[in-house]
Amino acid sequence: MRSVRILVWVAVLVVAGILGWLSFGGGRSPEVAASGPYGVPFTLVSQRGQPISEQAFRGKPSAIFFGYTHCPDVCPTTLFELNGWLEKIDPDGSKLNAYFVTVDPDRDTPAIMDQYVSNVSKRITGISGDPAKVMDMVKGFRVYAKKVPVDDKQPNGDYTMDHTASVFLLDSAGRFAGTIAYEEDPDVAVKKLENLIKKG
């Protein structure tokens, strides 16, 4: 009976060890697991109708915000603030790129994105495209986005979008470098962008 107990405990320890190994990336250290570019490859369309891919997030650091043009407050506020920070720390646009990716591609065509973003900033590039491809990119960047009907009795009627409200920061190699939270202290947000530029 005692030998059976020992065998059971050995089996438990082996299973626990395997689960622990898998949870830490199959034996890779967290640093190695996070060393590659963030997100997934994609081919979408800029607000001006030009093809755009993940390569746009290489060569210079990037600030990326996911939202939609029908957004009542979070998106216009964030874009306005982001534009102000960019003008302050990188007025000529030589050190940092910024992007606004729609989470509502059914309504946000490139033309609508162009009209919307152009009213706020000349520094931020809107990204849209085929709805399925856009949502694959959104999910690949681990961004939460969900349609919420305005009227529960009309699920196919007008809707809003619940979505992640943070600005994602990527270094010049496309690696994740942090976030700026919604309603972040402006001085802290500027400091994060300055540190991102220094990191390169």
Automatic annotation (TrEMBL):
It comes from the Bacteria. Disulfide bonds join 71-75. GO terms for molecular function: metal ion binding. Cu cation binds at residues 71, 75, 163. Residues 33-200 form the Thioredoxin domain. The keyword Metal-binding applies. Gene3D superfamilies: Glutaredoxin. Keywords: Copper, Disulfide bond, Metal-binding. Belongs to the SCO1/2 family. This is SCO family protein. It comes from Rhizobium lusitanum.
